[in-house]
Design a protein that fits this description.
single chain, three-stranded antiparallel beta sheet
């Protein structure tokens, strides 16, 4: 779970997740939304993959990224449990 919090602590990675929430995208399509280099975007995508927040599927010559909803549901459940315990 520490990988998840670390991955989500960066504003660039949060923006990538927000973009992927709308549509699956390739790394190039994601990079078009930033003013940083493609290797920097690749670094952020690797961190998100290691935290299992995104899935990567090879389609022809490109890799398409999507949100891993299972991990996000687990995180939301964890946060909801914390909120419930606080309110008890």
């Amino acid at each position: 779970m520490n990988d998840v919090w670390g991955a989500m602590s960066d504003p660039t990675r949060r923006k990538i997740l927000a973009l992927l929430r709308k549509n699956n995208m390739t790394a190039g399509e994601i990079a078009d939304n930033f003013t940083m280099t493609k290797p920097s975007i690749s670094h952020h995508l690797n961190i998100l993959k290691q935290a299992e927040l995104v899935d990567a599927e090879k389609k022809g010559q490109q890799i398409e990224y999507s949100i891993n909803t299972t991990v996000l549901q687990d995180i939301l459940g964890y946060v909801a449990d914390l909120a419930n315990k606080r309110g008890e």
